[in-house]
């Protein structure tokens, strides 16, 4: 229900989301909730020394049952991860069945853990349609080469990735597209289609093996025998599953079109086993059941006929499609597998209707995402945004963790080693997680991280505000949040400290939902706010030990950014007073103030709490800038350098600044807020307290609140740690391309330190910080991330918002040189836009057709089967923009979708005009003809029309008009569900009215750009509580 021009219109996907929200239909019951990696997680670690990577390896996963979750390729499960569906493949060259994605463990990689596969999250709505692409080599998968070469390389070398191995040369690989669609009116009816294209020059064999299985809940002694689920064969190509809570379901296969000269269909062979550990193989003990987890691998790859259950029953089932007649699938052709997962006991489905329904879901997904960002933009940007949205959906995961069971072990298993309890998370006995969570990365980080999740929610709120709100709500609930108020960080150490960004995210999600969807969820805002009061108190009590309003904090998510390991005691003695920790707390204060003011508009009791956060912010601001102790005590601000630094404090006036120019000194910019005078006048108690504070604490007011006396744009009031003078000094460095300002965003450490590293000798040991733009050159914090130079989207996003808040106050008149030394001056609104454009240039094609993230790789940049797919990396090289770290970090790198939504309309791309007004005519056609070339399971046939193997009976491989993109929106009217002509006419009339309002909205926005009527995030800002 995206609101345009005051008009509401529900797309088909939004109707489903509304039905789910109102609990009329459970559309989210089944989704992409299966992890891409469950092995080597903390939850599965029962070792005496906490070495999760060695205790449960990739090889173990083939034969050993998981205790706390499942993993698979393009997996789908229910919201409790009980019943799962996934896919396995075999190319007749590999030593084992490809049932899960491969990657290196942390000790194996020269830069920590890393996936070594080529897969892409192509499309996903929440969740009626999903699309996944896996590129599977036809030659033997280079497992050994990847292990050996990465082991040979050191910290100074780049990672060795699968595209570096040569395995995709001559296009000898499969493009395997896996699509999932739900029926129009029934969320329990799910269709799956696998389309595997042979991109190579020769025929090649392929085995496609869809799996259905139950998570093992029966082997641990916590469930009665009568609750054990089962799967058994019903007839050819049909299996029935039974579960005590999920009920009966059917796994129905359709014969696939043959690939050989015989013309015979490929009939799947149904295989059955149990999802139980192979004790005989792993531990030389007797198996508890004769048919175990690795049976399908042994049966298909090793020819062991007795590995599967001849009675065709068990808790794990597969359908084995063998495409190897006459050498396999011909070059340029495809193998297609279709099946249903259903509550209906059917023995047949019509493949034409099956494909039509998937096509309809695709058209509805196009409509859903287009209406989220209807303003005209380049097709490349729209493609990037769509894949960012998709990645946000694909990185949802079922997360199960119950501390008591994990720590103390299970009744039927050997007790865990006593030492295990003391290794990690011993203080988090209340943890009881059984939820769908948004994960930072689907393979590398298959566990939640508190501050990552807050950033996820900004993008998630655009698509599905209810899911975003649920994430923020969960972390403050009593089964996550510690009784002392601390939020859990991540499973490797729940007690670690992440930046306090939840209040900011809560308010932003509230405002995004109100602006985009016209809904105002005050109950959500109030509920989370009250829990965050506990967390704020925890921060004040635990991280400001001396009550000076200058905070410690630990590593705060910025891993190796400091001179010392900030999670450990200083080797120098004393304590580390952190500019970023104090800046974060001031930011937290203002975020809480924002929420309190919003709530006070409806419930006046919140005026008192607003006053509390207003005053607390002033105290923090004063301490950060001036200190409140002895007269000669130094602050964290260095006036000579024009920058904030961390400092070592030995108590009293004895303080030593650590002059490292890093993101630590930029974070104080986050702590800024503008207040509308109309709002203050509507809240008399709050206004009275502000006036009292100015009059009676004039010592603080004069130093920190000059802007209250001097009103800004729109007569606004500014609250900020950073004064105008200091803002100019900080921006002078931040916008200097030889310091922080790269072609692709703001670096985490100044390039100044490339030639001028800072070092300090303590007790004979030298500690140093230098500019490292790429991968980390140390093993600190696992060595798989680096905050000493690279670009991180999350912190850039907050800097962009801070500049926009400053612009709300200072307006057009306050201009800074951007970049520093260029002679070009612009106001802060344009500066924030320039940063967003540079960030988008990480992923967009340049004049040579290359994407910076691909680091000059010709395959990724130019190959027609690769160039439109993107990896969403964790962070980016500070000089080149090369993608680094995790590859599917659609968590906070998914913020790219939000930036494109806000500034994609005038983002300067190659071959497009530089000025917004000139660009309008170039882009304007996109409003009415918005279909972008669909990436996926079709390839051109005769006349340029797509070709696809469709029906095993008709064998129609030729052109199909319903795949023609020129049909545009008309596909929405071709639904087989709209048999009633009157209903169809009504729906088309609603859509026509909605289109008219949307086009009026677009025209208004274009006029604003033409006239350069500056605005922040649309016609109204989303950052502050307004009157």
TrEMBL record:
Spans annotated as Disordered? 932-997
SUPFAM superfamilies, per the entry: Six-hairpin glycosidases
List its EC numbers.
Answer: 3.2.1.106
**Keyword terms of this UniProt record:** Endoplasmic reticulum, Glycoprotein, Glycosidase, Hydrolase
The biological process GO terms on file are:
oligosaccharide metabolic process; protein N-linked glycosylation
Compartments, as annotated in UniProt: Endoplasmic reticulum membrane
- Tell me yes or no: is Glycoprotein among this UniProt entry's keywords: yes
Q: Which Pfam families match?
A: Glyco_hydro_63 (PF03200), MGH1-like_GH (PF22422)
Q: Where is the Glycosyl hydrolase family 63 C-terminal domain?
A: 723-807
Which intervals carry biased composition (Basic and acidic residues)?
A: 980-997
Domain Mannosylglycerate hydrolase MGH1-like glycoside hydrolase residues, every copy: 445-551
Q: In which pathway does it act?
A: Glycan metabolism; N-glycan degradation
Reactions accelerated catalytically: N(4)-(alpha-D-Glc-(1->2)-alpha-D-Glc-(1->3)-alpha-D-Glc-(1->3)-alpha-D-Man-(1->2)-alpha-D-Man-(1->2)-alpha-D-Man-(1->3)-[alpha-D-Man-(1->2)-alpha-D-Man-(1->3)-[alpha-D-Man-(1->2)-alpha-D-Man-(1->6)]-alpha-D-Man-(1->6)]-beta-D-Man-(1->4)-beta-D-GlcNAc-(1->4)-beta-D-GlcNAc)-L-asparaginyl-[protein] + H2O = N(4)-(alpha-D-Glc-(1->3)-alpha-D-Glc-(1->3)-alpha-D-Man-(1->2)-alpha-D-Man-(1->2)-alpha-D-Man-(1->3)-[alpha-D-Man-(1->2)-alpha-D-Man-(1->3)-[alpha-D-Man-(1->2)-alpha-D-Man-(1->6)]-alpha-D-Man-(1->6)]-beta-D-Man-(1->4)-beta-D-GlcNAc-(1->4)-beta-D-GlcNAc)-L-asparaginyl-[protein] + beta-D-glucose
| EC main group | hydrolase
* Protein name per the record: Mannosyl-oligosaccharide glucosidase
Q: What does this protein do?
A: Cleaves the distal alpha 1,2-linked glucose residue from the Glc(3)Man(9)GlcNAc(2) oligosaccharide precursor.
UniProt cross-references to PANTHER family, sorted A to Z: GLYCOSYL HYDROLASE FAMILY 63 C-TERMINAL DOMAIN-CONTAINING PROTEIN (PTHR10412:SF10), MANNOSYL-OLIGOSACCHARIDE GLUCOSIDASE (PTHR10412)
Q: Name a single GO cellular component.
A: endoplasmic reticulum membrane
A GO molecular function held by the record: Glc3Man9GlcNAc2 oligosaccharide glucosidase activity
Which InterPro entries does this one have? 6-hairpin_glycosidase_sf, 6hp_glycosidase-like_sf, Glyco_hydro_63_C, Glycoside_hydrolase_63, MGH1-like_GH
In the record, the note on similarity to other proteins reads: Belongs to the glycosyl hydrolase 63 family.
User: What organism does the UniProt record list as the source?
Assistant: Colletotrichum tabaci
Q: How does it sit in the membrane?
A: Single-pass type II membrane protein
């Amino acid at each position: 229900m995206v609101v345009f021009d005051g008009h509401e219109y529900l797309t088909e996907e939004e109707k489903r989301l509304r039905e789910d929200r109102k609990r009329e239909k459970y559309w989210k019951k089944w989704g992409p909730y299966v992890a891409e990696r469950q092995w080597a997680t903390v939850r599965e670690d029962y070792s005496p020394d906490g070495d999760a990577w060695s205790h449960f390896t990739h090889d173990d996963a083939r034969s050993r049952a998981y205790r706390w979750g499942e993993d698979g390729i393009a997996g789908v499960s229910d919201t409790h991860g009980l019943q799962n569906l996934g896919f396995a493949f075999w190319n007749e060259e590999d030593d084992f069945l490809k049932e899960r994605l491969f990657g290196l463990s942390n000790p194996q990689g020269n830069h920590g853990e890393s996936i070594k596969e080529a897969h892409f999250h192509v499309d996903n709505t929440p969740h009626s349609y999903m699309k996944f692409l896996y590129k599977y080599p036809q030659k033997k998968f280079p497992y050994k080469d990847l292990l050996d070469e990465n082991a040979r390389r050191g910290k100074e070398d780049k990672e060795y990735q699968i595209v570096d191995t040569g395995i995709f040369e001559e296009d000898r690989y499969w493009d395997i597209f896996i699509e999932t669609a739900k029926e129009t009116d029934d969320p329990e009816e799910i269709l799956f289609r696998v389309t595997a294209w042979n991109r190579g020059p020769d025929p090649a064999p392929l085995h496609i093996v869809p799996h259905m299985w139950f998570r093992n809940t029966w082997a641990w002694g916590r469930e009665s025998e009568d609750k054990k689920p089962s799967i058994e064969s019903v007839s050819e190509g049909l299996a029935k599953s039974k579960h005590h809570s999920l009920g009966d379901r059917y796994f129905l296969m359709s014969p696939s079109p043959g690939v050989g000269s015989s013309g015979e269909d490929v009939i799947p062979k149904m295989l059955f086993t149990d999802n139980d550990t192979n004790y005989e193989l792993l531990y030389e003990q007797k198996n508890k059941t004769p048919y175990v987890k690795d049976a399908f691998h042994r049966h298909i790859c090793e020819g062991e006929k007795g590995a599967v259950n001849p009675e065709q029953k068990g808790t794990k089932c597969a359908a084995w499609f063998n495409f190897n007649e006459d050498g396999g699938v011909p070059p340029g052709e495809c193998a297609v597998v279709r099946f249903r997962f259903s509550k209906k006991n059917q023995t047949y489905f019509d493949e034409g209707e099956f494909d039509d329904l998937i096509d309809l879901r695709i058209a509805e997904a196009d409509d859903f995402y287009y209406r989220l960002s209807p303003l005209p933009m380049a097709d490349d940007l729209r493609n990037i945004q769509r894949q960012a949205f998709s990645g946000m959906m694909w990185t949802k995961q079922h997360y199960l963790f119950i501390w008591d069971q994990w720590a103390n072990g299970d009744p039927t298993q050997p007790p865990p080693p006593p030492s295990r309890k003391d290794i990690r998370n011993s203080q988090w006995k209340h943890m009881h997680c059984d939820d769908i969570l948004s994960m930072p990365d689907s393979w590398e980080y298959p566990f939640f991280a508190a501050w990552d999740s807050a950033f996820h929610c900004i993008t998630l709120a655009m698509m599905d505000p209810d899911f975003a709100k649920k994430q923020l709500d969960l972390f403050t609930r009593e089964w996550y949040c510690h009784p002392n108020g601390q939020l859990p960080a991540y499973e490797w150490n729940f007690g670690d400290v992440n930046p306090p960004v939840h209040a900011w995210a809560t308010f932003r999600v509230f405002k995004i939902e109100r602006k985009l969807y016209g809904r105002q969820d005050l109950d959500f805002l109030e509920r989370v706010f009250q829990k965050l009061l506990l967390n704020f108190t925890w921060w004040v009590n635990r991280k400001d030990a001396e009550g000076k309003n200058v905070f410690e904090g630990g590593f705060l998510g910025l891993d190796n950014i400091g001179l010392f390991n900030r999670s450990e005691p200083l080797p120098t003695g004393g304590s580390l007073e952190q500019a970023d920790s104090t800046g974060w707390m001031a930011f937290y204060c203002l975020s809480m103030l924002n929420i309190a003011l919003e709530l006070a508009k409806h419930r006046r009791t919140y005026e008192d709490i607003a006053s509390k956060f207003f005053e607390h912010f002033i105290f923090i601001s004063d301490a950060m800038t001036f200190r409140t102790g002895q007269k000669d005590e130094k602050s964290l601000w260095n006036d000579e350098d024009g920058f904030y630094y961390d400092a070592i404090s030995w108590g009293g006036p004895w303080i030593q600044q650590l002059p490292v120019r890093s993101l630590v000194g930029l974070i104080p910019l986050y702590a800024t807020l503008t207040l509308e005078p109309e709002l203050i006048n509507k809240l008399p108690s709050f206004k009275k307290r502000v006036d009292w504070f100015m009059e009676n604490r004039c010592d603080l007011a004069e130093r920190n609140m000059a802007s209250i006396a001097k009103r800004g744009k729109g007569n606004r009031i500014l609250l900020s740690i950073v004064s105008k003078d200091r803002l100019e000094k900080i921006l002078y460095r931040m916008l200097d391309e030889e310091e922080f300002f790269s072609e692709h965003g703001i670096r985490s450490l100044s390039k100044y330190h490339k030639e001028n590293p800072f070092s300090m000798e303590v007790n004979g040991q030298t500690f140093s910080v230098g500019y490292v733009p790429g991968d980390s050159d140390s093993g600190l914090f696992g060595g798989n991330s680096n905050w000493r130079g690279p670009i991180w989207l999350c912190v850039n996003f907050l800097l962009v918002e801070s500049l926009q808040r400053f612009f709300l106050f200072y307006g057009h008149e306050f201009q800074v040189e951007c970049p520093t030394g260029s002679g070009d001056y612009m106001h802060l609104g344009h500066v924030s836009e320039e940063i967003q454009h540079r960030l988008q240039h990480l992923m967009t094609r340049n004049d040579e057709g290359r994407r910076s993230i691909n680091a000059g790789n010709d395959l990724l940049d130019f190959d027609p089967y690769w160039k439109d797919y993107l990896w969403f990396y964790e962070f980016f090289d500070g000089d080149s923009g090369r993608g680094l770290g995790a590859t599917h970090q659609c968590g906070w790198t998914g913020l790219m979708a939000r930036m494109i939504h806000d500034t994609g309309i005038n983002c300067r791309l190659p071959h497009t005009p530089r000025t917004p007004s000139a660009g309008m005519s170039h882009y304007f056609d996109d409003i009415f003809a918005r279909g972008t070339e669909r990436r996926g399971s079709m390839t051109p046939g005769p006349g340029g029309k797509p070709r696809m193997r469709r029906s095993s009976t008709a064998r129609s491989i030729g052109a199909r008009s319903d795949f023609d993109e020129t049909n545009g929106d008309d596909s929405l009217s071709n639904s087989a569900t709209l048999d009633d002509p009157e209903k169809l006419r009504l729906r088309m009339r609603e859509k026509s009215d909605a289109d008219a309002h949307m086009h009026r909205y677009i025209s208004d926005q274009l006029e604003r750009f033409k006239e350069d009527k500056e605005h922040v995030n649309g016609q109204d800002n989303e950052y502050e509580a307004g009157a």
